[in-house]
Design a protein that fits this description.
single chain, about 150 residues, mainly alpha, AhpD-like, 9 helices
Length: about 150
């Protein structure tokens, strides 16, 4: 496979800014489950093997079940496996990740506002933005999954 630059090493100031946003998300009110569902689902949509590998392992370590991880890419088809909050978060993750297709549908945004306060909803969106940025860095750099 082609060797590419390691952006995180060649651009330390950009890396520092990315880690600052990651630190904000880590300290946010988002639950660990919500953060990991966002990371895994966005990474699946983007086809980022490096991040899928990392975040599925992290989710398992934090107590997520293998079944929920295995079925995450088909979450819409599974009725009782994900909570209403998680389903909204997964829908928002998909809408923000694929924002170029249809934007964020008004009905989804209103549903999210009915369930989450403004701060939590903002943190969800920022977490999606962050993992999409990490995905793009990893894919552009051809980062390979770690063992």
């Amino acid at each position: 496979m082609e060797k590419r630059i390691n952006i995180l090493e060649t651009e330390p100031e950009a890396t520092k800014a990315m880690y600052a946003l990651a630190g904000y998300i880590e300290k946010s009110a988002l639950t660990n489950t919500h953060k990991e569902l966002i990371k895994i689902r966005a990474s699946q949509l983007n086809g980022c093997a490096f991040c899928i590998n990392m975040h599925t392992k992290d989710a398992l370590k934090q107590g997520e079940t293998a079944q929920r991880i295995f079925l995450l890419n088909a979450w819409k088809e599974v009725n009782d496996l994900y909570t209403q909050e998680e389903r909204i978060i997964l829908a928002l993750t998909e809408a923000v990740t694929l924002i170029h297709q249809d934007g964020i549908p008004t009905d989804l945004y209103r549903e999210a506002q009915a369930v989450f306060d403004a701060h939590y909803l903002s943190q969800i969106i920022m977490a999606v933005v962050l993992i999409n940025s990490w995905n793009r860095i990893a894919i552009s750099s051809l980062l390979q999954p770690a063992d």
